[in-house]
Amino acid sequence: MFYWVVKAILAPFLHLVFRPWAEGLDNVPRHGPVILAGNHLSFADHFFGALHLPRKVISLGKSDYFTGRGLKGFFTRLFFSGVGTVPIDRSGGKASEAALRTGKRILAEGNVLGIYPEGTRSPDGRLYKGKTGVARLALESRAPVIPWAMVNTFEMMPPGRPLPKFGIRPGVRFGKPLDFSRYYGMEDDRLVLRAVTDEIMYALMELSGQEYVDKYAASARIEMERARRESVG
């Protein structure tokens, strides 16, 4: 209920001020489990990614969003709860398995699960290599996978910018469902998981028009920060 209250309050304001657009809404099933696999350009994706959908989108977010203290921690928890985020431990190992179980439970209940396969926001607006958790979920749950491409949100609110730029219209494109039935029963094959993930990322590249980089976004961010420190030093 809280999700719909937040959406009812924010949606008119966002439509009036930013005039967001959406394409391919009919590609998202109206009922049943769905995986929305998206690129992640900006904090603004949390606002505009699901804005036009008539269904609630549940996403998996790091547990740090829900453990902060004081007034800031309270409003952070309130915001992420309001946009449908479920806290998970993303430290790897057993934590990754727990995240997978949570995602499967959400899908088994017939919900829409939003996932960012890159694992973090793009540091420079390009599309980075996807992690294979999305492939595991797709094959084990057998839920349809819809590519979910954010457009212009990086230009409007790049990482590190506290407030969005005005005059830039954010958009989202929903692609055709991807069929991975040929891989069902092969979710323990690492090569299959990589092939499924790469197919999802290719579909996102075509929808978003982004340049693709064959490395993980987290690694690219570390390299950029190191290069910046060296240039300053």
TrEMBL record:
GO CC terms in record: plasma membrane
Assigned keywords, A-Z: Acyltransferase, Transferase
EC nos: 2.3.1.51
Pfam families, alphabetized: Acyltransferase
Gene Ontology biological process terms in this record: phosphatidic acid biosynthetic process
Phospholipid/glycerol acyltransferase domain: residues covered: 34-153
InterPro entries assigned to the protein according to its UniProt record, in alphabetical order: Plipid/glycerol_acylTrfase
Highest taxon of the lineage: Bacteria
Gene Ontology molecular function: 1-acylglycerol-3-phosphate O-acyltransferase activity
Name the UniProt record assigns to this protein: 1-acyl-sn-glycerol-3-phosphate acyltransferase
UniProt organism field: Nonomuraea dietziae
